[in-house]
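@channel sequence for tomorrow's demo:
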Amino acid sequence: MDIFILLLISLFVYLIPRTDVDYLSNKSTKSLKGLLALLIIFHHVSQKITIGDNFSNFEYMGRYIVALFFFLSGYGLYFQYSNNVNYMENFLRKRLSRIFIPFYVFIVIYVFYRAALGEVVNVDFFLSFWKDHSNIVYNGWFVNSIIVLYVIFYVSFKKKDSKTSFYMLIFLTLVYIFWKAYQNHGDWEYVSIMAFLLGVFWMKNRISIDRFIERKYFVCLISFSILMYVFHHYEAIMKNIGITNKYVYYGIVGNLCTMIFVVYFLLLTNKLNFSNKYLDFLGNISFELYMIHGLVMHYFGKFFVSSRVNDVIYTIVVLLVSIVFAYLIKKLIIVIEKKLIIAV
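C-alpha cells (generated this afternoon):
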C-alpha cells in the first residue's frame, strides 16, 4: 500500500463534486453490501491461487471487508433502535430468526455436500466444530460472531438508552474479543470486531460527525490516508519494537487498524455513489453469497490447477455459480420464512 497512491486517491475524491445521496442510506448500504460480497469472494479466491499476482492485492483485504460488514451491522442496529421505541421487544427472536432460518438452510446444504465428500455425519461431526471453534459452513465464522454481537447489543440496550448502555456494549465487546484471543481463534475472527462499536457510535453521533467532516473534509482525507499507510504496516512496526502479545497486537492495535480503514472508506463514499441496480441485486443476496461461495470454491477447486489462465476462469466460474445459487437459495429462504410466519 503506497502512501502516494493513497494521497492521490484522496485528492481525486476531494475534487469530485458532492452528490445529494446519503452515503449510509438503506439504498446505499444495500449496494455497498453487494460490493463487499464480491470483494470477500475475491479475497478468498486469492488465498487459493498460487501462480501469478492477479488477485494478490486481495489477500490482505479480508479483515477490512469484514470490518465494513460489522460497521454496517452496528450502524443498522442502532439506527432502528433509535427510531423505533418498541424495537427491543422480542429483539432476539426477530433479529436472530433472520439469521437462524437461512443458517439452518445452509447447514442442510453443507451436510449433504460434506456427506457426499465421504465425511461421516454424526454427533461427533457436529461437536468437532464446537471443539475446533469452526463452522460447518466454509468461511462461516462471521455468522457466529454476528450472533454474539446481536446478543451483546440486546443485553446492553434492553433497558433505557444511557451512557451505561454504551459502557456495557464496549465492555462486553472487548470481553468477546479477548475471549477469542484467549481461545486461540484465528486473528481474522476478532481483528475487525470493534468496527461494530464504531457503527453504533457513528449512528448515535451522525449529525456531529457529518458536520465535522463537511468542515474539515480535506484534512480528514489526508489525515486518514497517512493513518491508513502507517497502520497497514502496524504488524512490522510492532514486531520491530518487540510487541507481539496477541491481545495488544491483534485485539487492540489490529482493531484500530481496521477501524481506521472503515473511517477512510466512509470518507471516500461520502463523495462516491455505489447505488446501481447490479450492486443492489447483489446486496439483496449478500448473506447468501457469503455463505455459499466457500462451497462453490471448494467444489470447483478440484478441477482447476492454478495457472494464469485457470485462475481467471476459476474466479469467473466461482462468481457466476455463487450468484446463481445465492439467488435460488434466497428464493427458497423467502418461501420458508413465509410458511413459518403463517404457521406462527
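heads up for whoever presents: Residues 308-343 form the longest helix (36 residues).
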